[in-house]
Amino acid sequence: MPTIQVEGREAIRAEEGQKLVLALEDNGVDILHRCGGNARCTTCRVEVLEGDAGPVGEAEAAILTTKGIHEPNVRLSCQIRVHNDLTVKPVMTVSDSGMDPGKRPVD
């Protein structure tokens, strides 16, 4: 079971293959996901500080480019399937933005 270290919090565990956004939300991280995990809004962005988050898929690459996000370590947590230990920093949270988190992403 992979371990996710979230900057400023205790480490959490994720099921093998689970979407990172769901692992974060299910463990009390107030991550945004306004489009429901469909790689359209970029609100679930995380900065991957350590570990291998896997390859960037076509949909994720397209929306990051469209939104002008070019940092190689910034990823959409709704598009990451957890297979390895990671250290991440959420870019946008419910508490920082004051927005509703959005519809729960499907697995």
TrEMBL record:
Keywords from the named record: FAD, Flavoprotein
InterPro entries: 2Fe-2S_ferredoxin-like_sf, 2Fe-2S_ferredoxin-type, Beta-grasp_dom_sf
2Fe-2S ferredoxin-type domain span: 2-94
Source taxon at top rank: Bacteria
One Pfam family linked to the record: Fer2
Protein name per its UniProtKB record: Ferredoxin
